[in-house]
Specification:
By secondary structure, this protein is α/β, with parallel strands linked by helices. About 50% of the residues lie in helices and about 15% in strands. The protein contains nine helices and seven strands, in the order E-H-E-H-E-H-E-H-E-H-H-E-H-H-H-E. A seven-stranded parallel sheet has the order 3-2-1-4-5-6-7, with helices on both faces. Helix 1 crosses helix 9 and helix 3 packs parallel to helix 4.
Length: about 250
């Protein structure tokens, strides 16, 4: 799957699934824009990709801040015009009973996982529509498909991202833009390893393959949706979870 000549924006690309995705798209030939709030890690990720002979650059983005989103979109489009691929990989959550979740944490979860990605797409979409083409891949979660105890707000936000994916896919199909969603199950990322050990063991026992996913395995699914191999696929949700959930 080749992406030569394509420009890809990947949010949350300084670590975890976002980083694996940035590396994978760059290896496929894309010029990758690493969008993340973590400046040092983002710049280091871009340099590491460049050292492998691929194209990457870091541009600061706080997906929860309107001014940052506007500045990011202006900078990227000023450099490259319309982007070809947008991967909404940034995400964050906490495990806590719904009734104990502080409202400030609640708001941060919703902004990071739903509202921010929607605003970024809105900022980048018009030029994609003008050019009549592009790929948008939202990274959801199986929590948004089947629910997850202790992650009710996170699940609600990711469920909203899935619905956003499907509705946007209908609206922009006339512009030859594909919109799809990849939903990871428990994956070896900093977010997962922040979970208490007893929960990790419980997660692992529930997975038929008896192991957690690797960021690269999710990135491979994102690469498929970013490539021409998925040109006739839109509005779809693909779970990458070792069989944890099997949604019809």
């Amino acid at each position: 799957m080749k992406l030569e000549g394509k420009v890809a924006v990947v949010t949350g690309a300084a670590s975890g699934i976002g980083l694996a995705t940035a590396e994978t798209l760059a290896e496929a030939g894309a010029r990758v824009v690493i969008a993340d709030i973590a400046k040092d890690k983002g710049e280091a990720a871009a340099v590491a990709i460049q050292k492998k002979g691929h194209k990457a650059e870091y541009i600061h983005l706080d997906i929860t801040d309107d001014a940052s989103i506007a500045a990011f979109a202006e900078t990227v489009q000023g450099k490259v015009g319309a982007v070809d691929i947008v991967v909404n990989g940034a995400g964050w959550g906490q495990i806590k009973p719904f009734w104990e979740m502080p409202l400030d944490v609640w708001n941060k979860i919703v902004m990071l996982n739903l509202v921010g990605p929607m605003k970024l797409v809105k900022a980048l979409l018009p030029k994609m529509m003008e050019r009549n083409g592009g790929k948008i891949i939202n990274v959801g979660s199986d929590a948004g498909r089947v629910g997850s105890s202790g992650e009710t707000v996170y699940a609600g936000a990711k469920g909203g991202l899935i619905a956003f994916t499907k509705s946007l896919a209908r609206e922009v199909a006339r512009y030859n833009i594909n919109v799809n969603c990849v939903c990871p199950g428990p994956t070896e990322t900093p977010l997962l390893f922040a979970v208490p050990e007893k929960h990790l063991e419980s997660f692992k026992r529930a997975i038929p393959f008896r192991r957690f996913g690797k960021p690269q395995e999710v990135a491979d699914a994102i690469l498929f949706f970013a490539s021409s191999r998925s040109d006739y696929i839109t509005g779809q949700v693909l779970s990458v979870n070792g069989g944890l959930t099997m949604v019809g």
